[in-house]
# Entry
Amino acid sequence: MTLLIVGIIAFFGVHLLPTFPHFRETLIARLGQTGYRAVFGVLSIASFALLVWGFAQAPVIQIWYPPTWTRWVAIVLMVPAFIFLVAAYVPGRIKARVKHPFLVAIKIWALAHLIANGDLASIILFGSFLAYAAYDRIMLKGRKPTTLIGTAAEGGGRNDLIAVVFGVLFYVVFLVWLHPLLIGRAVLPR
# Structure
């Protein structure tokens, strides 16, 4: 469990950096924009790997036993999570309306997994992601926007259709093949 907690602290430590604009700007001034992004990317990947490894190594300590129907609630909730995930990178009306679809996707993903999993490691992992996404959304209100992904005004309805189609396709692929392969647990009952 210790490795999971260290991974969570490292991962969110890196990702909370942009919520402190003065510290972020100081790093950019020292490293340059490219250097900052490179360091941020390497630390993000390394801390995410540590988080995943810590979660895989964590003992299963069951806190509560979710009813079997909660699995279906999670399966349904994940559809819009994948659509919002794609919409974050395909600017259109969905992105304009939701404003931060990536954070909405994280919130839905975390909530869905909290509903369907009752073990301590899952509660710590998904609870921390839900708290992070809520905190980051609040902090975004006071931050100046970046143009790393594109503006929400670009694309319109065509991009929304792309977000929905690719979101649903990615969802099906993840549900049927990637979740069992990467996570080691089949979502659909056999």
